[in-house]
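W.,

You were right to be curious about this one. When I first looked at the sequence I had no strong expectations either way, so I just let the prediction run and decided to look at it fresh. Below is the sequence, 509 residues in total, followed by the output.
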Amino acid sequence: MISKSPYSGVSLRLEIWHFLTGKIASAVMTFVILLWIVRLLPVTEYGVYVTLVAQLELAIAISGLGLPWLAARYLPDYRLHASGAKIQRLARLLLIWLAVSLAIFTGLLGAGLPHYLSWTGLTAFQEAATLYLLVLYIEGIGRLVIVSLLSPLMQQRVVRSSLVLRQLMLFALLLLTSFFHDMQLVDVVRAELVASFLGTSLAIIGLWKHLASLKCVTSKPDWEEPRLAEMWRTSLNMYVAYLLTLLYSPQVFQVVVLRALGAEAAAIFGFLRSLYVQVAHYLPAALLFNLIRPKLVASFVGGGGIKELGRNANMAGKLSLFGLMPLIVFAAVGGADLISWLSGARFTDTGFLFLGFMLALIPFSQRQLMESMAVATGHAGLCPRAAASGLLMPPLMMGLLNLGLGLWAPIIALALGHLLFNLVILFYLARYTGYRPDLAGFYKLITAAAVGFLGTVWLPPLSPLWLQVLVHAAMVMVAFLFIAWLIKPFAEGERDRINCLIKRPLFIW
């Protein structure tokens, strides 16, 4: 039986279970694979590999044409109000648009690949780079199906199966290859190709089955279907905003670092960027973003208005900072030890760079929520306006590089870019909708982090290194949670909502 409200609390709780179990399983495997590859490949080849991964992420986002945002805004609306036939039609259109756009973009990249490899001095890796174009297309289809279709339709069980299968297959293939000979870059690319094909195939099959199950859903009599022009306007606004944001994205900076500072600097930046991305993906609001975004949209279009939307967004934003602040404190206390341990002592004396990446996550952790609020309230046009501040970031980065700041240059530009974006969106949302962020709660979280740092910076060194990392991390977490418990950054109503969602009175902060 199909639920009348797939975005209700009961449905959301079930989706969170599917989502978290899948994310935890894939996160563990992704982290293990990340640490394994950095040890298997020579430093130069690892620098090339992380650059290829960054370019894959860029290409998928650029070829998406903003369609994931179109789907995020309108698929929940269709699922709540439209007939099954109309939901199927919109989903098929989105899938066709995504597949064609990605195919065209991949073809253009293939045509320009020899020139790019010559420009970056990577002609020796042409076989791996060419093969990675296939990874780009297959993996791109899989990711876009997950983000644009399965997530807005609340099909996290299918997403979980797809992600876990991909990572399991990648791990198995890497393990098998390492038994026969020393790992090379092309071996990693081949393993990714097979794993991506299997994961994407499972995602598409799951989507097809779910759409077939919606055949009997009937349309609400008072619902008016959005015009296609209106939907594309939302999509293109978000697409322009994203293109401007790419100017200061870590993926673009990865390519610049390779060109300006060499493969070894690119390897260091790429490893730290990989950790940055992992942390960013598993902050609470980002971890659950594919569930939160449909919920935010549904809370606004379902009659809650800006009051309900703002309340949900503020709580999600504070949850992200609640997960991030202990990591920032630990990066300040023991970041150098952590990076040395994780990289197998390949990248030493990079603890402060890691701290810089973690600080850059503060504005980034709020950015997706700001974008979601702008889209949900019908002000998607604010996003290109805010993202235009990104035009200042590339010259800022180049100026900092010329001043000799090295890898600090992209980190500073990254943090400032996201900060400016958030400030512009906040200003106009407050002006147009009356939204107000929960500044008191945010200040309390920052205070808990500052006091936690002062209480743990004195921790003595321990041996072996892994024991020191684990003990210091535990002490930082205990200090932060204790201070946060004393000053209560979350309101009583927010604590009640979180405890109601998890069905346990465990959240006491």
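Here's what jumped out at me. The longest helix spans residues 289-342. And, maybe more interesting for your project: The radius of gyration is 23 Å.

Coffee later to discuss?

I.
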